[in-house]
């Protein structure tokens, strides 16, 4: 007879192991208006989200008010517009800031948005020293990827140092800079480049703070302890997991050897993560759910390198702006992992794994070598000025692009297993995405004008004078910024004041000549371009332009580089051009075709503006092609306005696009 448990023993509940606290659960959100975004935040918090992650629109990110000419078409598209303290009040209405952990994805204007946040907290009766949260405040990656910089690198780093010093001295629970490698991977960084470029950025920030002397030497370890990171996790699960362990070990090493930090808690690699959006596909978008889950596993499975905060993209971000239901789906994914599984009941699952340790060591060795190259140049700022880091990202992204085109890098639903059934997720109204009402911009501008009319202009002028003086004299700009926020100053006034002091800046594009001779079918396209150029009587000239404030230039850079490799003469002056500047360049350069790249959702307004200006300039016959995240209905609208062709992320064969552009120019010339 076999032994059996007694009824008493079998009915006793198993003792549950003690569980670790879960990471902060966030969704990155904000759109249309402060009031609409506030409603979304309160809904998500009610659904169990444990922290806020605020997305600001491009005018706010680049220091313009909503009525600035460059803001046309951009207001409320990729985030919430915040022009002044009134907008900040509406954004956090019924949300007590002293009970919230708020992440603000803001960089060039980080001192200003933090000043508005502090001013509002004081209005609510909160003690700023108790506030918890993060401003991204990483300007270096803006020169390399997203493009929302305002000033040259040196004064930009100075402003970061001001924020670090102010928060360490007055807001000890606040993370004053969130070194962001997320967008480096989106721009094509390899794992070792992501490691090295992010760590070089952190060193540049710490070296700046140390040189400024605003923090006592005895408190410098606390500065190091408040540095946090924001990383990306891609689909190569094992590599990404090992990358995070490498980040943790390398940062501990840098803190000990470079900065002499002895307390282990100040050497901790504290990071938040959003998993990869670059790899989300327009084709078969339902597959993105699996990609997001796998990518999240890389940053939560390894206890010693577990993320402190996680935000996940929605399955349909390759199609457009996610709806509240789409964000809820991503939120539930985190909650299931944190609360239904037993993940948080165990120690590190990968300690002692020879496979994991070998990969970690390899990544660390390659990252150290890259860091040494950057240090030899003079650091991260020097590697921006000489375009080294930007050029390496463009090259790496080119290798990735060619790999997808050739099929060497398999992407399910894109270059493999492309047969598909219609997705019920994208049927119905709006093609399965949220669309921002076009009236939002006019309403925001009207509210901005009312705000200006109702404030004490003398108080604003006095606060602006104090800000100007601090910027010129080398004083910390946080105090004057907070005073300006309380006086009723605006984002544009803050930005314009500092632009007068520090000047504007245009970063290197990183687009060299003839970088990828190995691209598939390039010889055939070159022959085609040569033939068309001969019929034209001169080399086919292609203007690649990025109108508006969208700084995501990865696609435009790949198009410009491949066009040059194909034998075209390319005019590409980088990001943030007005429609007038693009049309003027088209006239002056005598181009044969214009390509516009817009990923901010402002494509209809900006393209219409360009088309109208081309007609007024007498060159309406020059064909225009447009690329971006453009829903089918908008693509038809653009074609009705005269656009020759619209390309979206599903059009990944760049060499084929070059052939189509050459054929388009040939057909127009023959007409």
TrEMBL record:
<comment type="similarity">
    <text>Belongs to the methylmalonyl-CoA mutase family.</text>
</comment>
<keyword id="KW-0846">Cobalamin</keyword>
<feature type="region of interest" description="Disordered">
    <location>
        <begin position="1"/>
        <end position="22"/>
    </location>
</feature>
<dbReference type="InterPro" id="IPR016176">
    <property type="entry name" value="Cbl-dep_enz_cat"/>
</dbReference>
<protein>
    <submittedName>
        <fullName>(R)-ethylmalonyl-CoA mutase</fullName>
    </submittedName>
</protein>
<dbReference type="Pfam" id="PF02310">
    <property type="entry name" value="B12-binding"/>
</dbReference>
<keyword id="KW-0170">Cobalt</keyword>
<keyword id="KW-0413">Isomerase</keyword>
<dbReference type="InterPro" id="IPR006159">
    <property type="entry name" value="Acid_CoA_mut_C"/>
</dbReference>
<dbReference type="InterPro" id="IPR006098">
    <property type="entry name" value="MMCoA_mutase_a_cat"/>
</dbReference>
<dbReference type="GO" id="GO:0046872">
    <property type="term" value="F:metal ion binding"/>
</dbReference>
<dbReference type="InterPro" id="IPR006099">
    <property type="entry name" value="MeMalonylCoA_mutase_a/b_cat"/>
</dbReference>
<dbReference type="GO" id="GO:0004494">
    <property type="term" value="F:methylmalonyl-CoA mutase activity"/>
</dbReference>
<dbReference type="Pfam" id="PF01642">
    <property type="entry name" value="MM_CoA_mutase"/>
</dbReference>
<dbReference type="GO" id="GO:0031419">
    <property type="term" value="F:cobalamin binding"/>
</dbReference>
<dbReference type="InterPro" id="IPR036724">
    <property type="entry name" value="Cobalamin-bd_sf"/>
</dbReference>
<feature type="domain" description="B12-binding">
    <location>
        <begin position="539"/>
        <end position="668"/>
    </location>
</feature>
<dbReference type="InterPro" id="IPR006158">
    <property type="entry name" value="Cobalamin-bd"/>
</dbReference>
<keyword id="KW-0479">Metal-binding</keyword>
